Amino acid sequence: MRVHSRGLALQKPIYLLYLNTGSETPRIANPRNLIMAGENSQGTILEDYVSLGVGVSFTNVVTEVVAGEQAVLHHYRIERESTEVFHVSTLSIQQGRSTTVNSHSVLTGGALVRNNIQPVLAGEGGNCLINGLFVGNGRQHLDNYMKVEHRSAHCASHQFYNGILDGESRGVFHGRILVCKGAQQTDSKQTNRNLLLSDTAQMDSKPQLEIFADDVKCTHSATIGQIDEEALFYLRSRGLDEAAAEGLLLFAFASECLERMNPGSIRNHLAKIIMRALPQAKQSEAAL
């Protein structure tokens, strides 16, 4: 699928909707998307994976992005299938000179989800943002693997992933930044923040840096914690009950992901999806 040719700026997003209607017999779907952004082009792509029925199924999707020189591409992925679905996705990004690619992911469904994102900054002056939120409950397993390769000089990449886990759910974040020899003046940042809402939820975080150049600025950090009791007390002292106060704090935490997106209809749509996915959604929505 050639999304846009040289110098073309899309005025509206391209929406790719994948519906899982459910079946008594297990099914497998293997979508493949090839997105080619021409030189000096601009556009927005939204992939949305939705379940309309129940039943065990396996979604195995590959999306390849090739960004030409000075192209600007915003890519969104929403995974909100039923908790009987196994979902494995790979987003492979090849960036040319002076390109900007922003990847945004919101993961709220699935029994087992594997989210692979692999940008390659192959041209000088490239910029890549990997931004995501995953929300787990019950016995969901949400696994995120990021590998960013800096192959050229004067490139920047930033990873921001937040996780909210309740019940017996388990989250994984494995972020790897590889700075190749000769990729001088690299600027790369990796941040993974997580909230555990129950004693049985688990989070595994493994940030990694591999640097083979000597003139770089690279950082990584990971935090795993619970809701701030002082912030919760402050909201309750203003008249909110405990559930509504927790809901507001969770939505504020999740909104860190939304704030990195361009304002508009997609961001508003994702805010509603996130609100419905949060454990305290009903109470916090009433408070808002």
Unreliable stretches: none
Distance between the termini: 41 Å
Alpha-beta classification: alpha/beta
Please bin the fraction of helical residues.
10-25%
Strand runs, count = 16
Helix segment count?
Answer: 4
Strand order of the largest sheet: 1-4-6-8-10-12-14-16
Shape: globular
Largest sheet: 8 strands, parallel
SSE pattern, N- to C-terminal: EEEEEEEEEEEEEEEEHHHH
Radius of gyration using CA atoms only: 19 Å
Mean pLDDT: 93
Task: Tell me the strand percentage band.
Answer: over 45%
Characterization of the model:
With 288 residues, this protein is an alpha/beta fold. It has helices at residues 229-237, 242-258, 265-277, 281-287, and strands at residues 14-20, 27-29, 32-37, 42-51, 57-67, 72-80, 85-95, 100-107, 112-121, 127-136, 141-150, 156-165, 170-179, 186-196, 202-211, 216-225. The strands form 2 sheets. An 8-stranded parallel beta sheet has the order 1-4-6-8-10-12-14-16, with helices on one face. Strands 2, 3, 5, 7, 9, 11, 13 and 15 form an 8-stranded parallel beta sheet that branches. α2 (242-258) packs antiparallel against α3 and α2 packs across α4. It is globular, with a radius of gyration of 19 Å.
